[in-house]
Write a structure and sequence with these properties.
Layout lengths: L5 H15 L18 E6 L11 H19 L3 E3 L3 E2 L4 H10 L3 H18 L10 E2 L3 H16 L3 E11 L4 E3 L4 E2 L2 E2 L6 E11 L5 H6 L8 H11 L1 E11 L5 E6 L10 E4 L15 H13 L2 H6 L7 E8 L11 E6 L11 E4 L5 H10 L7 E2 L17 E2 L10 H14 L3 E7 L4 E2 L12 E3 L5 E3 L29 H4 L11 E2 L7 H4 L2 H4 L12 H7 L2 E6 L7 H14 L9 E6 L3 E7 L5 E2 L4 E4 L2 E4 L5 E8 L10 H8 L1 H10 L7 E3 L5 H12 L22 H20 L5 H15 L8 H11 L4 H10 L23 E8 L2 E9 L4 H11 L1 H4 L4 E7 L3 E6 L1
This protein binds one RNA strand of 87 nucleotides through α7, β11, β15, α10 and α19.
Length: 859
Amino acid sequence: MSEYNHTKIEKKWQQKWEQDKPSKALNPGDEGFDDTKPSYYILDMFPYPSGSGLHVGHASGYIGTDIIARKKRMEGFNVLHPMGWDAFGLPAEQYAIQKGQHPRKTTDLNSDNFRKQLKLLGLSYDWDREIDTSKPDYYKWTQWLFLKLYEKGLVYKKNVPVWWCDELRTVLANEEVIDGRSERGNHPCERRPMTQWILKITAYAERLLDDLKHIDWPYGIKKQQQDWIGKSIGAEVDFTIEGTKEKIRVFTTRPDTLFGVTALVLAPENPLSKTLPTTPQAPECEEYIKAAMSKSERDRKAETKQMTGAFTGAYVTHPLLDETSPHYKIPIYIADYVIADYGTGAVMSVPAHDERDFLFAKTLNLPILPVIIPRDGEEPDLDSCFTDEGVLVNSGKYSMYPTEKARVDITSELVLKNSGNAKTTYKIRDWVFSRQRYWGEPFPLYLDKNDNIIPANLKDLPVELPPMEDFTPSADGSAPLNRAQDWINLKDKPELKDLKRVADTMPGWAGSCWYFLRFMDPHNTKGAFSNTAVNYWKQVDLYVGGASHAVMHLLYARFWHKVFFDFGLVPEPEPFKKLFNQGMVTAFAFRDKTKRLVPSDDVEKSGQNYIQKSTKEPVEHFVTKMAKSLNNVVNPDDVIKDHGCDTLRLYETFMGPLDIDKPWSDDGISGCVRFIKRFWHLFYDDSGQILKNLSSPPPTEYKGDELTIERALNVCLKRTNESFDGFNFNTAIAAFMEMLNEVSKHKASINSSQAQRLIKALFPFAPHIASELWESTGNTTQLDFEPWPKHIDKYLQKDTYELVISINGKVRKKLPTAINTPKDQLEALAKSALEDKLEGVTIRKCIVVPNKLVNFVVS
RNA sequence: GCCGAUGUGGCGGAAUUGGUAGACGCGCAGGAUUCAAAAUCCUGUAUCUUCACGGAUGUGUCGGUUCGAUUCCGACCAUCGGUACCA
């Protein structure tokens, strides 16, 4: 075969791999398991199999991990590289409703399509480990693991204000609601008190925060998790309501500002406002509460910076001042800048040292009482507030204390006086874990007549979803499973006739909280996974996916994993040792002056600009997301059909480093089309015959053309190898292209050793063409397990280099020079080369960097 | 507002510890081949200036350190992403 036929070759090798399974990972105990091989677990975030299929953006991450997986196999690792489907959840159900079909059917169709598309990309997954979170043999164990959380007391049922989405007809977790709209579908949501199943993720807040130190994750993602957990160290302070023995407790991070309190402010929802001693002003206050409560969350948010509030007419007393102090009596206000479900729903207002309190005091004309001054002795400015650390003033015996020490000592005094204590709070809320939807894991719990919770036994698992003709969500917020009364009332289990099942289902995140563990042992029928399997694979060595999961999946999975760790089910406290975020593949699009999108087939290039064909107006060329609505989605199937999957793999790799966003360009791919063809022809002569020299063994010492080839090859191997350190495989492809430009001039001299190393190095990137060339150059082994080729240092050295000669840092001349010429000779050489330019000037200094440059400093 | 990331030719992007800015590829221009086209091959391609040799400018902006800065430091600007009364 002399012409490169991608269709034929790729089909041939994909069929062969399907049979021989070189990417099959072996567990201890499996036939052929080799315990001398180290393990390596590399995982892609598994996809939700959407109806629109895979686009080239998804492919880029999968191609990246595949390149690494293939190289690791060549380096002698037992590589676990699996794929599966995150198939339960809202999007899958929404899609089914839209298609008017059952989600079981659409999910199966979609995952079939995804599997087909992924296989066309030549990805070396161990397909024998494929999983689907919506299949009973998988969710049986999701339910079992949920029961572990229940056993630990991490599951509770409570009537709390939750996010309700009318459009989706279900509640959502805090993490799933962005700016009062659903993360999925962007529908408006509202706060509504409802009884929900909740997971006590707050119990793990400290460890989720602390263990971030021990994992190799991008700084930005760690920071996002840290902010989401939102740890604040401070104190709780009790203020006694004047004329009663009742106390109002506040949380503050700045107990050092305690002597600057000029008001105590309650959230409108705070029930304490109803029990305050009433006064003539109270009715006005009630109005305010009513008005605040009737505003939607969004309105309240929209009014940020617009301070409002009302005086209740009641007062509290200062815990550390006595009655004679003018600041002893503190008025109680109600204001909606205080939020009910953080801290205690009440704050001590210190306008001199907190931005919001300052604004509030300005708006309501309350006194501002500075108690901290800057350390550098500057006068406090009454027109702004000072929020930094400093030194206390007007604070009784604490005056002159630095703020850091004052915080500790004031807190101690509060403890002594039984008026407070040190306290740490977290922003993270418990995880609302139930959904009023059909397509999710049923809870493995029963309720008795008195609403007591009774966990299901292992033998009753899985609690299967009943088949329902009409699975659509109910308008009244009641879960659709409530309509399956026989199932709710356990008609299938007469022995449990007094109990009821739970009608809510788990959210889509449940299945993805542990799928990486199931991949270690996917066919286990006795447990979620065996000890042997998890103790062997331990944790995911490299996890690759988009950055959008920073506070949802990646936080939830860490939480569940820590619970499993506490049960001794897994050997590591963290699931993902190293995390890498791949960039998005974007697309070019055009828009006219009015920013309206112009279809690309109505645009033509005119020199370096673009004009709209129909109007002859210039249009702007810009980069945007790939989206169906923009009609700019590139389907990998089409690219593969035209150019082959190796070319697609190379192009997606060549576009840029794995972690950045890169725009797809249909023109750009032609460079890789040419490269593949030229690489193929490197091993064939003009008449289509394999080069004769390829059967000759390497010489004992390289010289002439063979030396030139050997040098180019070693440079290429070194750069390829280094590209794995920074996930910038684009430089590896560039190295291959440079090598090809150099070597193709001398291709008749390539010997068998050189050809082998070259083909091996290309294999992770373009496995089909590499395998075909491997075979046609006379090799019979599986490339997957051939040792990864390493460069030899001595062939990286050249005999000569270009000596750069500069004056004051500006390059003046370049001179071919023998390598390792001594310093003094270089200086002399440079001097004579720049004779004319150095005439009449004084050389103040001469810097010589051997094998690089000479710089004259002149005046 | 706060936090994070990123700014390099017409475009995607390269540049060890500070040491030739623009590798590689696309695009573009010219040429070869061809009846012609496609494909392929060769040459050129940061900007300004010069017939040319050459010279000047140039890695978002302004400044600093240095013999020498895309790289280090300071201030600012722009774009993208995250987050928002968290006391």
